[in-house]
Amino acid sequence: MFRKFINFYAEFTLKWYLLILLVGVVLAVPAYKGACKLFSNINTDIIYLLPEDYQSVQTLHKVREKIKGLGHLIVIAESEDREKNISFLEDLSERLQANPLVAKAMYEKPGFDFLDKHKLMYIDLADLAEIRDRIDRRIQREKLGGLLIDLSEDEPTSFNDIVDKYSEKYPSGSRSRYLESDDGRIFLMRIDPTGEIGDFEFSEKFYQSIQDEVSKVKPAHEGITVHYSGNVRGRVDEYRSLVRDLKRAGIIAGLGILLVLLIFFRNPSVILFIFLPLALGMLVTFTITYGVLGQLSTVTAMMFSILAGLGIDFGVHFFSRYREERRKGSSIEVSLKTMLVHTGRASWTSAITTSITFLLLMIVDFRGFSEFGFIAGIGILLNLASYIFLLPALLVLAERLKVLRWRQAGVAAGRFLDPHKSYPHARPILAVTLILFFAGIAASFFMHFEYNYGNMKAHFPGAALASYKHRKVHKRQNRPSVFIIENEEQAQAIKDAFGEQKKKLGEESVVDTFKTVYDLEPREQDEKIIVIGEIKGLLEDDVLEKFVKGKDKEKIDKFKKSLVQEKIALEDVPYELKEIFMGNPDAPGTVGFVFALPELELENGMTAMRFADQVAEKNTPKGTFYSSSGSIVFADVLITMVRDSQIAIALAFLAVLTF
Length: 659
Known about the structure:
Blueprint: H1 2-39, E1 42-43, H2 55-66, E2 73-78, H3 82-96, E3 102-106, H4 112-117, H5 125-143, H6 160-169, E4 186-193, H7 200-217, E5 225-229, H8 231-265, H9 268-292, E6 296-297, H10 303-327, H11 332-359, H12 367-400, H13 426-444, H14 461-473, E7 481-485, H15 488-505, E8 511-515, H16 525-538, H17 542-547, H18 550-560, H19 575-582, E9 590-596, H20 605-615, E10 617-620, E11 623-628, H21 630-658
Parallel strand pairs: 1-6
Antiparallel strand pairs: 2-4, 2-5, 3-4, 7-9, 7-11, 8-9, 10-11
Helix pairs in contact: 1-9, 1-11, 1-12, 3-7, 5-16, 7-8, 8-10, 9-10, 9-12, 10-11, 10-12, 11-12, 11-21, 20-21
């Protein structure tokens, strides 16, 4: 049946080769458009690599619905003049208010005045009592003739340890209303977009718009240096780098294949015969991929180079066999039939074996593997089909136009195809092959999986510098995981669960704090009001007027302004402080943030998996609650990928062995 069909197609091609070429052109035009749409739609969102039924994926969808956007751009202003920094951000903020792409631009801490006034109500009761006791001890020392009060001294009666404790939780605290470094040289402005940063076209437009606004404001503020940080920049930088690398890889792969073919065949016209069917097969593959998947991921975006490398083999084998037959003196028809029957049968066996191996990957959960398997599996078959369909017609056209000329002298097969001669240098080649085989097995024991995503990302010097400047203001740059909660009872249940977990794990715990909107209403307010009253009474002691002078007196006078004895209800808290917890009012519930320890790098997969293990699911008396974030999904991606890679290797081995 196979031989019959091939004989018919060879005869048909000899007569209707121009029609076949015309059909190829007709197929190529829409296929090119489909391929362009596919490569313009590369999804770099890590959530895309997992199936929709994963808990972390479902939870993150809810979180994103609740907290629209989940993205921001940080503008970093740096100069030696603190006032110049403030002036620059004020002018920039004024311009950004009229920008339709900007939802909010913030360079002052939300609710600063409220928190500064009531800060003592937000520290732990035990710490507040300790402050009272230390003030009392210091006053007694002064009455007994001790040294003057110096709140900056590092001694048992100073407050440095308490200040440091809350400075770690609340960077720059109530020291300044601005997001600034300790030396006042670096200021931050956080800019939230109106759209979704997952939409690359919008993110790029938003990022460029902010840069344009900065360029208009900057000339009036000489000496200001501006940097950009935040996940909007990260998303844009990574996407641009990916597209740039794809182009570079495509050019390198194309030129590499071209060079090898030129060296082997020594005829530039041959390149056309081999490349055109390959191009058609790949275009059709990517058009089908666009219709089925709609987009590429960061894993499958490199399929152009991979398919080119896999598909070109068929062209080399087919043309080599056709050339061999023609140089032996066979007619065009006989050469085509020989090429399609003998080389075709071997090529189909090879293609089906390889294709099935890839297509088996579709059963695994990790989309990077399953979609890679789908594209590679159909791509190999379509490339082979394209060669069988188009190459014979191209060869007939070339023969008719006398583009190809064959030397008839001698048999081109040489020693390799002479059944009466042995394979040259068989033993040395076998020995080298065995050495390489066992060396490969030995080397495999020294291979390890790279869990640190930071080591694999493209390096952007400007982004690294901006991140360094950013850390001068905010030490914590790892993003929290998010719970959706309905009421205060649920919030307290989750908080208690984390408290118990911390006690159980001790130093193994990677969780820092869990914050909800209900934390804005201070706990133990009646007790704290009593202690604040006691502190106020101590600071009215006459000894202070006698011994405390200069800067120490200024510190105490400022401290007295915080001795506010009034209860705070949640409705008394400014909305700008509650806003981050409230999220989208159209989505139910409020938001709870669980933070990792500030020094943890969640781009490290091992750390991300530890974090996910401790925060992704919480069982409480009020029910089971799930949190999610990019780090949680990243952890699931790694776990799924490592598990599925073992399945993929086993399936590939069995598939090859079977065929």
